[in-house]
Records
---
Amino acid sequence: MNFNYTEEQLMLKDAVRKFSEKEIAPLVKWMESEKRTPRDLIKKIKDLGWCAIQYPEKYSGTGNTYVEYVIMQIEMARVYCSTACTISVNGMLGANIMKFATEEQKMKFLPEHLYGEGIGSFAFTEAATGSDPNALRTTCVRDGDEWVINGEKVFITNATMPGLMGIFCKDVEMGGKCTNIIIPKGTEGYSTPRIYDKMGMHGLEVSDVVLDNVRVPYENTTGGEAMRGKGFQVLLGSTQIGKLSVCAQAVGMAQAALEEAVNYSKVRVQRGKPISNFQTIQSLIGDMATDVMVAQQIVLATAFKASEGKELAADAARTRLFTSEAVHRVASKAMQVMGAYSYTTEFPIERIFRDAKLTEIYEGVNEIQRLIASTDLLR
Ligand SMILES: Cc1cc2nc3c(=O)[nH]c(=O)nc-3n(C[C@H](O)[C@H](O)[C@H](O)COP(=O)(O)OP(=O)(O)OC[C@H]3O[C@@H](n4cnc5c(N)ncnc54)[C@H](O)[C@@H]3O)c2cc1C
């Protein structure tokens, strides 16, 4: 067992950190106020190959693993979680294609998906279903060589941007079983009527999607005929990867919160000395550093397991539970260290505190993760 980063992993970590600090950090203020992500920022990230990390070279990937993917996500989220998340949702659709699509579909969709102008979306949630997959209402009906899709999705990330979207539908001819279909966003009948105004993650574009007689080729069924009606399998496979991204984002934000608190404690003077001299501050920072260390180790271990193609459900749920609650604790304690200034927009910590809350909610709420975390033990 070797716990050290390889030379290549260190280079990637360093490159993502430098890029994030130089190219993303100066845009954060704009993204927070405009509630958008500049399209050319996404293109720059894609051009660097960071949307292609976890894919084999055969499919235009860079041939690395989920460990390198997680390293990239941690470093990006350390600077701005919204951008890391925008990229990770592209990765969720990519995981769908990689795991379940036919060879022909991989060759057709992946090169553009990994390097093109657009950014992918993953559309499962509806008004009546966030945690209950059986309550889907969006339908797909076969009409000759085409699918006709009707319905409404809610809370869909990147839906306002061009690219591909994997939609989970109730397949009418299959008695309502779930089928996953890949559509190009912007196809006739596709619209995004409402963009959400959120508590945090302002750079993440999230909207409702209306599908009004959207027609796409029947051959866009993810995995072809063999996977028709097996959409829940697709959902479970890709949300495990989605969860891994959320864990990495939690680690990146926790790392940033810790760094901010440590730096502040060394310069803030009370009673004639930096507050880092007070045991109360040392104790808070000790707790935070412990959470960051454990969170980082378990996310890398789960990423390693994902790279080996091992069954991930329970591990991903446990990792998600720990990391999301850890970043919550760390951000809150960082605010205690920084006192009143932490509550102002002068310091990024108030944004991290708001952004961190989402890690306990999306990709399946933590209450559901607690149930999944016990499945392999109680089987
Ligand atoms: C910023 C943001 C981006 C998102 N992006 C996407 C996206 O790109 N694609 C997408 O498909 N979705 C997306 N979502 C949706 C997100 O994944 C869902 O909101 C999430 O899974 C929770 O669903 P819900 O809000 O309907 O919660 P509900 O299912 O209504 O759950 C509410 C509460 O009820 C309890 N509960 C519900 N069911 C159970 C149960 N079986 N057992 C125990 N307790 C239960 C839990 O305590 C839970 O917290 C996004 C959401 C947000 C906020």
Note: Residues 121-229 form a domain with the Butyryl-CoA Dehydrogenase, subunit A; domain 2 fold (CATH 2.40.110.10).
---
Amino acid sequence: MADTILEIKDLTKIYGQGDENLCVLDRAQLTVERGRFVVLLGPSGSGKSTLLNLIGLLDTPTDGQILFEGKDITKIKSERKRSQLRLNKMGFVFQFDGLLPEFSLLENVAMPGLMRGKDEKKRAQKLLDQLGVGSMSHKMPADLSGGEKQRAAIARALCNKPDLLLADEPTGNLDAARKEQVFKDFAALAKEGLTVLMVTHDVHAADFADAVYTLENKQLTKTK
Ligand SMILES: Nc1ncnc2c1ncn2[C@@H]1O[C@H](COP(=O)(O)OP(=O)(O)OP(=O)(O)O)[C@@H](O)[C@H]1O
Ligand SMILES: [Mg+2]
């Protein structure tokens, strides 16, 4: 039997209030099985980042349910419990790398481990090596290219061995070869049990994915 890790039911997100409001998601549905590499496509402004932020507990929906490992996480109100769940179970790659400027690449990648009281420097270095930026681990983010930072951000999201990786356009700054490598890496990680939900504008990513959803007109449609 398939093991569902994430189930989104009738998810609605309306930004703002009164006449100024903007409905981005209108009773959207999504089911993700564990160990799958799922790609999320959709036009700019369609609500892809909004959806990832809701799943990653960085924002709260207007209505609907997000069942993560069987539990409705929209019901968790305590900020401490929300960040605990995020730290222990999820990895997040932000659309704009989100690295802390005052720390080196290695420190940035090891940070989620440190927040759980673990010294993950070795693992952090290994992840940076795998992503081809190992030799830059002692550099500060400001001294790196956009693509190098993006690869470090992927390493950071993987540091705590999450169950679910939420990646928001993680390859936007990478060249075609690096992009393809990241897609292949995600497909391989999914085979080992990680669930990956990746937002991208690159339709080529669909070739590597187990499932593809398109977000358009406030709804999610399965397109592969
Ligand atoms: N905090 C906010 N308050 C009000 N409106 C917002 C907020 N964040 C996003 N929006 C609006 O919601 C819509 C969806 O934004 P979102 O960032 O989710 O789109 P996206 O699909 O990720 O786009 P892109 O591909 O350009 O990254 C946009 O019209 C945006 O202007
Ligand atoms: Mg976005």
Note: The chain has a mean pLDDT of 95.
---
Amino acid sequence: MAVIALFDLDGTVLTFDGAAPGPGRTAMGRASRELYGDDHTQGIRFAGGTDRAIARALLDRAGLPFDEDKVQALIDRYLEHLEVELARRPYRAIGDVAGTVTACTERGARVGLATGNVRRGAAIKLASAGLGDVFDLSRGGYGCDHEVRAEVVRIAIARCGREGPVVVVGDTLQDVAAARAAGAHAVGVAVNQATRDELIAAGADAIVDRCDRALVDALFRVAAWR
Ligand SMILES: [Mg+2]
């Protein structure tokens, strides 16, 4: 049975140079200012969240009731600002992402995405890092599919064909929790000791520090567990 390997994007596959806020948060802040007169992103945790959940939190902070049209308008404006911002400050890959995906595929895995980004946002971010052709976006669960990350993982699994053991690769405890809730294994990508400790506490099956051979080995090792 084919192993299904689902990658998170931000902080796992993609990072940015320069000071925070990163391109995503910057773009959402601009969309908020444009639509609601102020940047309502302060205090919202973006890492590990889904775009729909971030939009819900932002509307709440703006004192507006949740409404599907408002969510769509906010995400549409966000995507326009994201493209502009990424032309100036693109994302870059964390390690050898293309080589990692190729190695997973060569060992028989089905590689997909489980990300809080809406699908178009995922495509824009990957393209900015030169990774536009690396993932098959039809094998993904996205922030436009569901607000709850565990559901995003379940949708990604269904789109990958539900075949064999599933391993989620992510950088936040939300990735690990979503993997657990969906019956999947979790490999954490940690850039520092604090993140490493957090991911271990959340129940990650293995921890690596970037997309490389060690990640591929860890992924297949945990996939073989019962
Ligand atoms: Mg992430």
Note: Residues 185 and 225 are 9 Å apart (CA to CA).
---
Amino acid sequence: MKRKTDKQATLAVHAGDRKKLGEFTPTTTPIYATSSFFYESSEDLEKVFNDEKEGNVYSRYGNPTVSAFEDQVAVLEGADYAVATASGMAAIHMAVLGGLLDRRKSIVAADVLYGQTTALLQKVFEPFGVETRYADPCDLAAFEATVVKAQPGCIIVESISNPLLRVPALDKIADIAQRHGAQLIVDATFTTPVLSRPLELGVDIVVHSATKYLSGHGDTMGGIILGRQDTYPTINYLRKTIGPNASPFDSYLAMRGVKTLSLRMEKQCRNAALVARQLAECSAIERVYFPGNPDHPDYETCVRLFPEGLFGAMVSFDLAGGRERVLAFLDALEMTVPATSLGDVQSMALYPAMSSHRDLAPKHRQRLGIGDGLVRLSVGIEDASDIIGDIVQAVERSETVVAQSATDQRSGS
Ligand SMILES: Cc1ncc(COP(=O)(O)O)c(C=O)c1O
């Protein structure tokens, strides 16, 4: 695109695409299903190997479809580079490896992270001698005290925590990381570049599960790592030596998804605000967690760091009655999909105690505030009245189901 703009909605549709292919230019980047590439002369191949000439040699090192997706997201994030991976977990694994490679082999992590990220730190890095200390990134004094004690090589936090939706002040965490010489990695899956561009706040590395909002249609898996030039050699070297690459097919789908990211994200955020407001009126819902509620502890941080009126598209709530009631609620949903993902066009509901945080001991879960009645909603792009109607009817029906089951038990049937 020749036109100069910094508008995300425009960049998402044009960035990465329309590279000239011989005599013509494809409107959208095709799927290059090839493992290797060759040139008229070996001299040219040598130049591509040496980064003296643009091109590709082998798809583990780079592939035109994958590069187009990487260029698209790099532009949206204001990054110098992006490296796409096969999943969000592959991106997190590679980012942590990169953060530790030339640094102290210790980590400070947010105390609430996606369950598999915590498992990666505890069950994969720890056996290699990498100790992780955990702290609340929304309590800056306590977080810094942990950093001082641990002197970590890298720090990892999420831009909106899962499932309690706390929002750390990334600019202040970046300041702490910088003062103590640690590389700061932020999993920005829940915010996307529509809500936040963490590299501009001083964060070193951003990762996304592209499986979620970026692709947005529940039809592909992917991850992406983004950074500034100083981290590129390490991350690119790890891409070549470890090979966690995204496939051209998945990159094609993810790129297609990103073109509508700002449309979807804005609609989903606005729907989430309406859903959160309505759920607060339900007597069976004991507490609603939504960063856009003025009584949310991180409301001011969101107002300071996010675009006006956007607070993310996730809403969590505590349903009175615990596990039995939550399971009855999930079974009563008529439209919202009770599946283990988020960020898709359709609304989705998840029970953290059974899925994303099932590996945590019940006591640990309770200590983190993840109770037996906690439900996490990923609000989709449907009409808000349908989402609200479905959730409210499922809350009401779940009460009847639980009451009936209690009556049956009493009567021994
Ligand atoms: C915040 C967050 N980060 C990372 C991941 C892992 O992503 P993937 O499933 O693409 O590996 C998830 C998955 O749910 C997630 O919620």
Note: The CA atoms of residues 151 and 180 lie 7 Å apart.
